[in-house]
Design goal:
The structure holds two protein chains of two kinds.
Chain A (H helix, E strand, L loop, with lengths): L1 H5 L5 H33 L4 H50 L2 H7 L1 H26 L1 H16 L4 H45 L1 H6 L3 H26 L2 H25 L5 H43 L13 H6 L6 E8 L9 E8 L4 E6 L5 H6 L9 E6 L2 E2 L6 H6 L1 E4 L8 E2 H6 L7 H10 L3 H7 L5 E2 L8 H13 L5 E5 L7 H12 L4 E6 L2 H4 L4 E6 L2 E6 L1 H7 L1 H10 L10
Parallel strand pairs in A: 3-10, 3-11, 6-9, 9-10
Antiparallel strand pairs in A: 1-2, 1-4, 4-5, 7-8, 11-12
Helix pairs in contact in A: 2-3, 2-6, 2-11, 3-5, 5-11, 6-7, 6-11, 7-9, 7-10, 7-11, 10-11, 16-18, 21-22
Chain B lengths: L5 H15 L3 H30 L1 E3 L2 E2 L1 H50 L2 H6 L2 H43 L1 H10 L1 H37 L1 H6 L3 H26 L2 H26 L4 H42 L20 E8 L8 E8 L4 E6 L5 H8 L7 E6 L2 E2 L5 H5 L2 E4 L8 E2 H5 L8 H10 L3 H6 L7 E2 L7 H15 L3 E5 L7 H15 L3 E5 L11 E6 L2 E6 L1 H7 L2 H9 L2
Parallel strand pairs in B: 5-12, 5-13, 8-11, 11-12
Antiparallel strand pairs in B: 1-2, 3-4, 3-6, 6-7, 9-10, 13-14
Helix pairs in contact in B: 1-11, 2-3, 2-5, 2-11, 3-5, 3-11, 5-6, 5-11, 6-10, 7-9, 7-10, 7-11, 10-11, 15-17, 19-20
The chains are: A alpha/beta, B alpha/beta.
C-alpha cells in the first residue's frame, strides 16, 4: 500500500480535513453524555426547569454543529477519494501502456482491465469510507474512554480491558476471514469461468455433447462456492453478537463499581448514567467498525493489486549509449540493419523461439520472411522496433544496438508496423490514419491510402470522416488490413514492417500493394505464408522452428532450400495433382 | 441497470419467495431468532434502567436489586447474542442457497439456450447476470433478512416499550422520527441523476480502456501512448467530477438522519427531565428512554439503506430471471436416438434465415451418399456456415427438412446427432485447462498413446512438446498459442474422436500451407469412408472433393467435381483462376 499512499500527497489537506471535521462531529457526540449527566445531577436534582431547557437547547445545538461538520467531512473525504483514485487510474493507464510486449503477454488483457476498473472502484469506496468512518470509530472509542476517565479515573481498568478484548475479537475475526474471503473470490472466479466458457464455446461444447459434463462441473464449482461463502459468513457473523455480549458484561461491571462508589459518595448517579452512555457509544461504534473492516480490507486487497502493476518495471533493457560508445566506432559503416547471432526465448526454461539468426539488410531493400505457423516470423520482426529483448546476440540498426537509449526515438518514430491482427480504434478513419503521423494533411493520408489500396475503402465508407466503431467492427477483415497498412505508410517510415498483413486480401490486390510499396524505396520487411508475397524480395529468410534454414533470393532458395521448395510447391500445385512432399 | 416495471417487480418478488420457500426451516429459524434477539436487546436497557434506579444516592444502594437486574441483563444479553448469531446462520444459509439455486437454474438454461440467443446476445452481459447480478442479489437478500426483520421488530418493540413506560414521551418520539425517513428519501431521489452520470462516464471510460488495452501492441507500435493518455485523462477528469458529486450527495443521508435523531434525543431529554421533576417518572426511566431513543432511530436509518439495497437486488434478480425465462431449445426428450450411421445426409427444399424478412437459404436440396466429400465454396455471407449450422442442428430450418439416415433431424436427440459429427471451425475454441483436457474433450477415456498419435497426425505434437509443460501446459484464454496452432489442436481433437461424419469449416484457414499439406494426408485418411462437409477459402484444399457446391446468396449456383466445374468456366472457374493468377 506504500505506493498508493503517495497519491494522497496532492490531497493532503482534504485527507486531513475530512477526518478532522469528522472528529469534531464525534467530539460533539461525546459531549452528549456529559450534558445528560448535568441534566440529571443539576437540573433534575434541583428541579431547575430553565437549566433543563438550556441543557436541551445545547443538545440540539450539538446536533446542528455535528451536522455541519459532518457535511464538511463528507465533502473533503469524497474529494480526496475521487481525486486520489482519478490520479491512480491515470497513472495505472500510463503504466500499462508502457509495459513491454512480454509483460502484456504475461499479464493478459482481462487482468489489466479489471485492475483499471473494478479494483480502482473498490479502492475509491474504501478510501472514502476510511476517511469518513474508519478514523472516527477509534476516535470515539478512545474519546469515550478519556471522557470516562474525566468522570471517574477508577473506571480506567474497565474501559481498558473491554477495549482490548473487543479489539482482539474484531482483529481475530478479520484475520480468520480475510484468507477465507480470498478463497471465496477464487471460487466465484471459477463459476465465472464456467459461465463464460459455456457461452463462448457453445458450439464446440454442443458438438462434442459436453453439456452434461459441463453442467456437472458447474454444479461442483457452484456448490463449492456455496460452502465456502456459508462458512466465511458464519464466522464473520460471530463479531456482532460477541461484541454485544462483551460490552454488556462491561456495563454490568461498570454500574456495579459505580454503585459502590456512589454509596461512598465519590460518584453521582448522573455520572454513572454518563459512563453507561459512553459505554453504549463504544458498542455502537465497534459494531460499525466491524462491518467496515470487510469493505476496507477488500479495498486494501485491491490497492495491493493495483500497486503490483504500478510497481512493475518495464522488462525491456535500455542501455546507456555512452557505455556502448567503444564498440560503436568500429561499426559505423556497417549495413542499415544487422542481426548478429540473435536468439530469443520467451520464458526461462522454454525452448528458444529464435535460434542464432544472423543476416544484414541494406537501406531500401525488401526482405521477405516466410515460414510455417509458429516458426518465429513475427518474433523476428518484433525485434527490430525492440518490442522484445533478445536473449542472445544483438540487433543493430544504423550501427547501434536497439537497446541503446539514443536509438529509442528513432525506433519509436521511424518504423511503421502493421501487426498481424488489424486493429482499428473508435473515431473516424482520419483519426485512425493520423496515428501514423499526427501532422499529416488529408492529401498525404489519401496518398498513403492509395499505396495501401485502401482508397476505395475510404471512399466507399464516405471519406476520411467516416466513423469507425469500437474495434473497427464496421469494417471487414480485408478493409481493416488495408487501413492499418495505410496508417503505417502515412508515417513515411524508414523501416516498414508488414506482419502477414495482407492475408485477407485477394492475390491481385496483394500484388498491387507490393508493387506500390516497392515504389516507396523504404526498407521493407514482408512477413507472409505466401511465397507469392515474398518472391520478389531482395532477400528471403526462411524460418523453420525458430531456425533460419535458408537466406537468399527466390531462385537461390528454390535451388538450395528444401523447406522453401516445399512451401512453394504446397501453394503452386500444377493443376490437379498435389505438388510435393 | 434497467428499470423494471412494477408489475414485473411483483412477479419477481413472488419468484424470489418461491426460491426462499425451499428452505422453510431456515426461514422459520430466521424469524424466530430475530424475535428472540430483538426481545433480548430491548430488555437489556430496561434492566439497566432499573439497576440505575437501585443507585439512589450516597449510602443508599439496593445491592440485591442491582444483582437481580445484572443477572437479568446477563440472561437477556446472552440470549440475544446467541439468537443473533443463530439467526445470521439461518439468513446466511438462505441467501447462499437461494443464490446457488438461481445460478444453477441460470446455468442450466445457458446449456439449453438456442444458439440464436448465444450468437446475438453479448456474452459479457449474460456472464454478468450469472455472476455479478447474482452476487448483488445475494448481498441484498442477506441484508434484507438480517436488517429488515430485526429493524422492523426493533421499531415495533421499542414503540411498545416506550408507550408502556411513558406514553406521552413515546408519542412524541413516534411522531417526530419518521422525518428522518423523509429526509433520506429526499436525498436518494436527488442523487439519482448524479449516480446516473457517474455510471455513464464510467461506462465510457471502460469502453475506451478496453479498446486501448486490447490494441495495446498497436498503440505502442505507433507511439500513440501520449494521445491515448490525453484522451483517457479527459474522460478521467469528467469521471472524477461526476464521481465526487455522486459520492458527496449520497453521503449526506447519514448526517441528515443523524441530525434529526439528535433533535429527537434532545426532545426526549427535555420532556423526560420535566416529567421526572414533575414526578411520576424516574431517572432510571429517563436513561431507559434515552437509550431507546437511540435504539429506535437506528433501525430507521438501516431500513432506508436496506430498501435501496433491496431495490437494486430486485433489479438484479429480475435480470437473472429474464435469462432463466428465455425460450429454451425445443425439448428432444421424446426423440429417437440416431442408430448406426452410414453417412446418408439429405437436405430437401430447405429454407432458412436469421432475420425474418431477410431470406438467406431458399429451396436448398442436396443428397449426400455415405463416404462422399462435399466441398462448399462461395463468398462471405453466401450461406456456407449457415448450412453447417443446420446440419449440426444448431439452428432449425424454417422450411423443408434435413435428414440423416432417412430420419428428420428434428425427430432425433441432439446428442445422438451431434456425436456422429466431428466439427472443426475457423473460430477455434479452447477450454481453460491443460492441452490434454482439450484434446480429450470429445473422448475423455482415450489413452495418452491415442492422444499423442492424434496430435502427431495433426502435426501439433512438436509444438506441444516445446511448451513449458508439454501436454500438461494450462491454456488460459488460448495462452500464447497462435491462431494456427489453436486450429491444429482442434484438428487433433477430431483425429482422436474419429466420428462417422465430418464438418470442417475453414478448419485450416490459419495454418500455413506447408503444414496444411503435411496434415492433408492425415485428413484424407480420416475422411476415407466418412461423409464430410468442407468449407474452404483456399480452393487448393478441396480439388479432390466428390462434389463441390458453389454458393451465392443462399443458393447453389454450381455443383460438380473440380474438373467439371473448371471445364464449365463459370463462377467456380473464375474463383479458382483468381487464386492462382
Amino acid at each position: 500500500m506504500k505506493k498508493i499512499l503517495t497519491y494522497f500527497k496532492p490531497y493532503k489537506w482534504q485527507s486531513l480535513l475530512g477526518p478532522l471535521f469528522k472528529l469534531l462531529e464525534a467530539t460533539f457526540e461525546l459531549l452528549v453524555p456529559f450534558v445528560v449527566a448535568a441534566i440529571v445531577d443539576n437540573g433534575i436534582a434541583n428541579a431547575d426547569k430553565s437549566y433543563v431547557v438550556w441543557a436541551c437547547v445545547i443538545l440540539a445545538a450539538f446536533g446542528l454543529f455535528g451536522f455541519g461538520f459532518s457535511v464538511l467531512a463528507q465533502y473533503f473525504s469524497a474529494r480526496a477519494a475521487t481525486g486520489v483514485c482519478a490520479d491512480v487510474r491515470s497513472d495505472l493507464f500510463r503504466k500499462i501502456q508502457s509495459l513491454s510486449y512480454k509483460d502484456i503477454d504475461k499479464m493478459g488483457e482481462a487482468t489489466m482491465l479489471t485492475r483499471m476498473t473494478g479494483d480502482v472502484d473498490k479502492l475509491q469506496t474504501g478510501i472514502n469510507l476510511f476517511l469518513r468512518l474508519f478514523l472516527r470509530s477509534p476516535f470515539i472509542v478512545f474519546g469515550a474512554m478519556i471522557c470516562a476517565l474525566i468522570i471517574d479515573l477508577k473506571t480506567f481498568g474497565i474501559f481498558a480491558v473491554t477495549i482490548v478484548a473487543l479489539a482482539i475479537v474484531v482483529y481475530a475475526v478479520m484475520l480468520i476471514c480475510m484468507p477465507l474471503y480470498k478463497k471465496t473470490q477464487g471460487d466465484l472466479d471459477k463459476v465465472l469461468l464456467s459461465t463464460r466458457e459455456n457461452l463462448s464455446g457453445a458450439r464446440v461444447i454442443r458438438a462434442f455433447c459436453m453439456e452434461d459434463a459441463e453442467r456437472k462441473q458447474f454444479d461442483e464449482r457452484n456448490n463449492k462456492l456455496n460452502k465456502s461463502s456459508k462458512f466465511v459468513g458464519a464466522i464473520a457473523a460471530i463479531t456482532n453478537p460477541l461484541t454485544y455480549a462483551l460490552i454488556n458484561c462491561a456495563i454490568i461491571w461498570l454500574i456495579w463499581s459505580g454503585a459502590i462508589r456512589v454509596e461512598t459518595g465519590i460518584l453521582t448517579t448522573g455520572s454513572v448514567i454518563a459512563l453507561y452512555n459512553l459505554m453504549s457509544q463504544i458498542l455502537i461504534e465497534l459494531i460499525k467498525l466491524a462491518n467496515l473492516i470487510v469493505t476496507v480490507a477488500k479495498a486494501a486487497a485491491s490497492g495491493n493489486r493495483i500497486e503490483a502493476v504500478l510497481k512493475m518495471q518495464p522488462s525491456l533493457d535500455v542501455i546507456d549509449s555512452q557505455a556502448a560508445e567503444g564498440e560503436k566506432e568500429e561499426k559505423s559503416d556497417e549495413p542499415f540493419i544487422v542481426f548478429d547471432g540473435v536468439s530469443l526465448r520467451y520464458t526461462e526454461g522454454a525452448d528458444e523461439a529464435l535460434e542464432n539468426i544472423s543476416f544484414t539488410v541494406n537501406k531500401g531493400e525488401t526482405i521477405g520472411v516466410i515460414g510455417g505457423t509458429g516458426s518465429g516470423k513475427t518474433t523476428l520482426v518484433n525485434l527490430i522496433p525492440h518490442f522484445y529483448d533478445v536473449s542472445g546476440g544483438q540487433v543493430r540498426v544504423n550501427g547501434k544496438d536497439v537497446r541503446e537509449k539514443d536509438l529509442q526515438p528513432f525506433l519509436r518514430e521511424c518504423i511503421g508496423v502493421v501487426p498481424q491482427k488489424a486493429k482499428l480504434f473508435k473515431g473516424s478513419i482520419r483519426d485512425n490514419l493520423l496515428w501514423g503521423r499526427a501532422d499529416a494533411t488529408d492529401e498525404e493520408l489519401m496518398a498513403a491510402a492509395r499505396i495501401a489500396q485502401a482508397e476505395e475503402v475510404i471512399l466507399g465508407k464516405g471519406g476520411l470522416d467516416a466513423p469507425v466503431e469500437q474495434g473497427g467492427k464496421n469494417f471487414s477483415g480485408g478493409q481493416k488490413q488495408r487501413l492499418t497498412i495505410a496508417r503505417a505508410v502515412a508515417r513515411n517510415p524508414e523501416i516498414l514492417i508488414l506482419d502477414d498483413s495482407s492475408s485477407a486480401l485477394d492475390y491481385a490486390t496483394d500484388a498491387e500493394l507490393r508493387k506500390a510499396i516497392r515504389s516507396l524505396n523504404t526498407t521493407t520487411f514482408i512477413v507472409s505464408q505466401r511465397t507469392s508475397s515474398v518472391r520478389d524480395a531482395d532477400k528471403i529468410i526462411v524460418l523453420d522452428d525458430g531456425k533460419a534454414v535458408g537466406i537468399g533470393t527466390h531462385s537461390e532458395l528454390m535451388e538450395s532450400c528444401a523447406v522453401y521448395r516445399e512451401i512453394y510447391h504446397s501453394q503452386y500445385q500444377d493443376g490437379e495433382e498435389g505438388g510435393a512432399a | 441497470m434497467k428499470k423494471v416495471a412494477p408489475k414485473a417487480r411483483k412477479g419477481t418478488l413472488r419468484r424470489i419467495l418461491k426460491y426462499v420457500g425451499k428452505y422453510p426451516l431456515s426461514l422459520v429459524g430466521s424469524v424466530f431468532f430475530a424475535v428472540l434477539s430483538v426481545a433480548g436487546s430491548l430488555l437489556v436497557p430496561v434492566f439497566f434502567g432499573d439497576a440505575i434506579d437501585c443507585i439512589i444516592g450516597k449510602g443508599n444502594i439496593d445491592k440485591d436489586g442491582l444483582i437481580f437486574n445484572f443477572i437479568a441483563v446477563g440472561i437477556s444479553a446472552g440470549v440475544s447474542a446467541l439468537a443473533q448469531w443463530l439467526g445470521s446462520l439461518c439468513n446466511n444459509r438462505i441467501s447462499c442457497n437461494v443464490v446457488r439455486d438461481i445460478r444453477k437454474d441460470a446455468f442450466d438454461k445457458i446449456g439449453n439456450l438456442p444458439l440464436q440467443y448465444v450468437d446475438t446476445h453479448p456474452h459479457g452481459d449474460t456472464v454478468s447476470r450469472v455472476v455479478a447480478d447474482a452476487d448483488q442479489f445475494a448481498d441484498g437478500l442477506l441484508m434484507g433478512f438480517t436488517q429488515f426483520i430485526t429493524g422492523v421488530l426493533t421499531i415495533l418493540g421499542t414503540i411498545g416499550f416506550m408507550l408502556l413506560t411513558n406514553w406521552k414521551i413515546g408519542l412524541v418520539v413516534v411522531l417526530v422520527t419518521p422525518l428522518s425517513l423523509l429526509v433520506a428519501r429526499f436525498v436518494a431521489t436527488h442523487t439519482h441523476k448524479f449516480f446516473k452520470e457517474q455510471t455513464e462516464t464510467r461506462g465510457e471510460q471502460t469502453a475506451f480502456t478496453e479498446e486501448a488495452i486490447g490494441g495495446l501492441k498497436t498503440v505502442q507500435a505507433f507511439a500513440h501512448e501520449d494521445e491515448n493518455n490525453a484522451k483517457f485523462n479527459e474522460i478521467n477528469k469528467r469521471l472524477e467530477k461526476a464521481s465526487l458529486k455522486a459520492t458527496f450527495y449520497s453521503s449526506l443521508t447519514n448526517p441528515s438522519t443523524r441530525f434529526i435523531n439528535n433533535l429527537v434525543y434532545a426532545l426526549v431529554a427535555l420532556i423526560g427531565a420535566f416529567s421526572v421533576i414533575g414526578g411520576g417518572f424516574t431517572v432510571g426511566g429517563l436513561t431507559k428512554f434515552l437509550s431507546y431513543a437511540n435504539q429506535y432511530t437506528k433501525p430507521f436509518n438501516e431500513i432506508t439503506g436496506v430498501i435501496t439495497e433491496l431495490k437494486s437486488a430486485f433489479v438484479c434478480a429480475s435480470r437473472i430471471f429474464e435469462l432463466i425465462d428465455e425460450q429454451a431449445e425445443i425439448s428432444d426428450k421424446e426423440n429417437k436416438e440416431l442408430g448406426e450411421v452410414q453417412g446418408n445426409v439429405l437436405l430437401e427444399n430447405v429454407a432458412f434465415s436469421y432475420v425474418k424478412d431477410k431470406p438467406l437459404i431458399e429451396d436448398f436440396s442436396l443428397q449426400v451418399a455415405p463416404g462422399q466429400r462435399v466441398a462448399i465454396v462461395g463468398r462471405t455471407g453466401s450461406g456456407k456456415t449457415t448450412l453447417i449450422n443446420l446440419l449440426m442442428r444448431f439452428y432449425d430450418v424454417d422450411g423443408g427438412v434435413v435428414k440423416v439416415e432417412g430420419e428428420d433431424v428434428r425427430a432425433l436427440t441432439r446428442k445422438s446427432l451431434r456425436s456422429n459429427y466431428g466439427m472443426v471451425l475457423q473460430e477455434t475454441w479452447l477450454k481453460n485447462g491443460t492441452v490434454r483436457e482439450n484434446l480429450k474433450l470429445g473422448k475423455p477415456d482415450a489413452t495418452d498413446e491415442e492422444m499423442i498419435a492424434a496430435a502427431k497426425a495433426a502435426h501439433a505434437h512438436s509444438f506441444i512438446k516445446r511448451m513449458e509443460k508439454g501436454y500438461d501446459t494450462v491454456l488460459s484464454d488460448g495462452g500464447a498459442l497462435s491462431e494456427g496452432q489453436k486450429q491444429l489442436l482442434c484438428i487433433a481433437r477430431i483425429m482422436l474422436t474419429k466420428p462417422p461424419m465430418l464438418i470442417l469449416d475453414e478448419a485450416t484457414s490459419s495454418i500455413d500451407t506447408r503444414t496444411e499439406l503435411k496434415i492433408s494426408d492425415a485428413f484424407s485418411k480420416l475422411m476415407e469412408g466418412r461423409t464430410s462437409f468442407v468449407v474452404a477459402h483456399r480452393l487448393s484444399t478441396i480439388v479432390h472433393s466428390d462434389c463441390i457446391l458453389v454458393m451465392e446468396s443462399g443458393h447453389v449456383v454450381e455443383q460438380g467435381t473440380h474438373k467439371q466445374l473448371l471445364a464449365k468456366g463459370g463462377a467456380y472457374a473464375t474463383l479458382y483462376n483468381k487464386q492462382f493468377s
